[in-house]
Amino acid sequence: MSSDRIDAESKVSGNQANIPARIRRELNIDDGDQLRWQLEDDGSIRVQVIQQQTGTFADFDGYAGEEPTDVTSEHDAWGVDVE
């Protein structure tokens, strides 16, 4: 990206600024993502997008209870399978 190019503009209102739709789409910014701001020595601002992590149990299908399990012998203290 060239520093001379203006990609989009937005207005500050109540100490908040909207991120233009074109920029959100280009950077894949979604609800829950965070922006990390860094003020450079030359007065410019660098913004890094921190994508929201998916939930810890997002891929967990659950346990149907069909097989007996002994948590003390089959898992370590953190619930990770013992190899």
From TrEMBL:
<dbReference type="InterPro" id="IPR007159">
    <property type="entry name" value="SpoVT-AbrB_dom"/>
</dbReference>
<protein>
    <submittedName>
        <fullName>AbrB/MazE/SpoVT family DNA-binding domain-containing protein</fullName>
    </submittedName>
</protein>
<feature type="compositionally biased region" description="Basic and acidic residues">
    <location>
        <begin position="72"/>
        <end position="83"/>
    </location>
</feature>
<feature type="domain" description="SpoVT-AbrB">
    <location>
        <begin position="19"/>
        <end position="47"/>
    </location>
</feature>
<dbReference type="GO" id="GO:0003677">
    <property type="term" value="F:DNA binding"/>
</dbReference>
<dbReference type="Pfam" id="PF04014">
    <property type="entry name" value="MazE_antitoxin"/>
</dbReference>
<keyword id="KW-0238">DNA-binding</keyword>
<dbReference type="InterPro" id="IPR037914">
    <property type="entry name" value="SpoVT-AbrB_sf"/>
</dbReference>
<feature type="region of interest" description="Disordered">
    <location>
        <begin position="59"/>
        <end position="83"/>
    </location>
</feature>
